[in-house]
Amino acid sequence: MSIFGKFLKGIVRDRNPTDDTVKVKGKVKPKFYGTVPPYPNFNASSDASVLQSAIDSKDVDEDVIIAVLVKRNNEQRQKIKTVYEASTGQRLEKDLKSVLRSDLEDVSLALLMPPAHFDAYLLRKATKRLGTDEDVLVEIFATRTNQEIQDIKRVFKEEYGKDLKEVIEDETSGDFTKALLAMMDGKKDEDHEVDVDLARKDAETLFEAGENTKGIDVSTFIDILTTRSGPQLSKTFQQYAAVSDITLPKALNLELSGDIEDCLIDIVKCAWNTPAFFAEKLHLAMKGHGTCEDTLIRVLVSRSEVDLKKIVEEYRAMYDFSLQEDILKDTKGHYEQVLLGLCGPY
Length: 346
Prior knowledge:
single chain, Annexin V, domain 1, 4 domains, two-stranded antiparallel ribbon, 2 strands, elongated
C-alpha cells in the first residue's frame, strides 16, 4: 500500500508541531528525536586510542570500532578524528578504509562525515554516475533546513570545485530542474504558525492551476510547495479537500508524469509527515529480493540525530513490523550491528 493509502486509512499520523518544542533554560528549542545523543563522559583522546588499537590489532576488532562510532554523535566523532590524526599522523578515514570492507566500510565512513559533507557527497554521487539519481536529489532538498541547504552548497563547491546549481542544471531538465532550483534557494518558510486563510487561498490557487484548467500550471505548484512550511502545507492539503473531489496527490498523479510528478508528490509526503516519508523509503529498500544498501545507509546516518526515533515509530505503525526486525532479515554481520545500533533499542 502506498504512503497515501495509509494516510487515508488513518494509519500514518499527521504532523503535530506543537509537540516538537521544549523549553531549555527559558529558551524554546526543538525536542530531540534522534537515536544517537551525545555520549556522556566523552573523552576524544581515549576513543582515538581505542580505535587505533582496534585498527592495528592482528585481527581488526570491528566490534570495538562499531561501539565507538555508533555511540558517539557526529560532533564527538569530529573531535575523535582530530585527535586521532594529531596522535598518529594518519587520517582516521584512511585507516578505517584500509581495514574495513564493503557495506561496513561505507557506513563507517558515512558516520565520520559532518552532515553537510555527507549530503554534498550524496549529491555528487547522485549526479556523477551514469544516469542521475533523482530520488536522492529530491530527498535531500525537500528535507533539509534552509541553513543546511546553504551549508551543503558551500561544502559542495569547496570539495568538488563546482557550483551545485550548475551541476543540477546540467544533469536535469524542464520543470524538474525548476523545482530543484526552487528548493535549493532555501527560501522555505520555517515558521510553525499556520495561516488558515493562506491555506484556503493556496488550496484554491492549486485547484485553479491544476484540475480547473486545461493542462497544468506547474510553476504555481512549484512556487507554493517549495516555499510554504510543512505545517502550512498540511493545512493547505486539508483545505484542498473542500474545493476538489480528489486529494492533491491524486490530482498530481492525474495531471503530471515523470520526474516532476515524483518530485512534487515527495514534497507533499514530506510536508505531511517527514518520518513516514523516510519509513517508506526504508521499507522499499528492503522489500522484495535484494536490499538497497545505499538507501539504508543514507537514511539511517542522516536522520540518526534528527528524527530517526519517529521514523522507527512510523515504520511499525505502517508495516506492522519493527524496522529492526526487517534489518535483521535483510542484513548480516557487523554491518547489521551498525544499522541496529543507529536505530536505537527496541
